[in-house]
Specification:
Layout (H helix, E strand, L loop, with lengths): L1 H4 L15 E10 L4 E6 L1 H9 L5 E6 L7 H8 L19 E4 L12 E7 L6
Parallel strand pairs: 3-5
Antiparallel strand pairs: 1-2, 1-4, 4-5
């Protein structure tokens, strides 16, 4: 696993222009009921179901709010304008987002990876 995230093993030449960030799990708060709901995005579920015959890894980027998780995700997918980045202390990622296309992190491995970008810890 460590070899997957070592910078020398990440292919930054990968063309991921066909992908885009999409919500995977959305958080909905019902103030009237005082409840919070976690909703799976049907588009994300369909993307994952379409990958059922492929070898897929999952990389989840989690950590404190405003610590560079989305920036790291963008580096992994070789995108500048992939996952939304914020310039203030206000968090931008709500829930869990995924890149809509699996990416190949290394030519040394025979599988592709789904990247998940999470809302920062303690941001709710």
């Amino acid at each position: 696993i460590n070899s997957l995230i070592h910078p020398k093993n990440i292919s930054m030449d990968e063309d991921t222009s066909g992908g885009r960030p999409i919500p995977f799990i959305e958080i909905e708060t019902d103030a009237e009921e005082g409840k919070t709901y976690f909703n799976l995005n049907p588009n994300a579920v369909q993307i994952l179901q379409d990958l059922k015959d492929k070898r897929i890894g999952v990389m989840v980027i989690a950590g404190p709010q405003r610590s560079g998780k989305s920036f790291l995700a963008n580096k992994l997918i070789n995108q500048v304008d992939g996952f939304q980045l914020g310039s203030s202390v206000q968090p931008c990622t709500k829930g869990i987002w995924m890149w809509s296309e699996p990416i190949k992190l290394s030519e040394d491995h025979d599988f592709e990876t789904i990247i998940l970008d999470t809302e920062g810890l303690n941001s709710v």
